[in-house]
Amino acid sequence: MTLVLGIETSCDETGVALYDAARGLLAHELYSQAATHADYGGVVPELASRDHVRKLLPLVNRVLHSGARRLDQLEGVAYTAGPGLAGALLVGAAAGRALAWALGIPGIGVHHMEAHLQAARLDEAELREPFLCLLVSGGHTQLVDVRRHGDYRILGESRDDAVGEAFDKTAKLLGLGYPGGPALARLAARGDASRFTFPRPMLHRPGLDFSFSGLKTHALTALRACAGSDQDRADLACAFEIAVVETLLEKTRRALRLTGHDTLVVAGGVGANRRLREVLASQLAARVIYPRVEFCTDNGAMIAYAGCLRLAAGQRDGLQIAARPRWPLSELGPV
Questions:
Q1: Whether residue 207 sits in one domain with residue 108
Q2: Which of 71, 80, 145, 177 makes a 20 to 30 Å CA pair with 39?
């Protein structure tokens, strides 16, 4: 299995990529719907699905052109089958399954979070299991013991808001636009870290689970108690971000001690946060690896790569068009 087309449509970004097992990533394209959903303060599922329908096939053609390959040269198609928004997933699954059938080549549905945790290998080919993975995105916050490819043990996860969701909700409280996470981080960069004190959720409890919904409530209470000036909001953003990062740091440190691993992979959109990167690099006695920033957020390259690995191992999906909006990572079988 050499040349694989990857399709990502789990939420509000349409990603397509072409991956060659011998030559690596040949081309990738990403269309973001952020401007479409900004007026609503979050993703509208029906609008997301319709935009995927409009953008997906033109992106496939652009990727093939950029990679100097023809459609009939493809040897496999990988598409995100879950987790994600049901309608958005079905667009990619239907297109991917139809392409594979029409070309007479195998197709496979990829687990979105497995693709995230494998994305670091796009640039770190020598990365080997076992390692610890911190998955931090808009929909997930998980500490995963990656024992071998497909053999994943969830050590801890959020009991309420995912960390990216907490960033977006707090950004909305502070009057920032969508997507809120990057906007909050920019605002926090000019805040006074000493002015507000936020709790560090669940740090004094046993286990490795997270909880971030209380930080959003704390931000709302603090905002109502002050004038709400630009500097007030910057100080609140800074205190919120520090509380999140320090919570992630301490839980990750505990997970490294528990597993004995000396390598940490940080994956998902929140992995692009500068403060998180700086703190983990300076405070952990472990090798910390990230995908490049463009592959932290949703993208087709990680789907093409993850699909290539499973197709090369002989795994195939049938002709059914299947999407799993809820799909626990622990249900995946080893390769």
A1: no
A2: 80
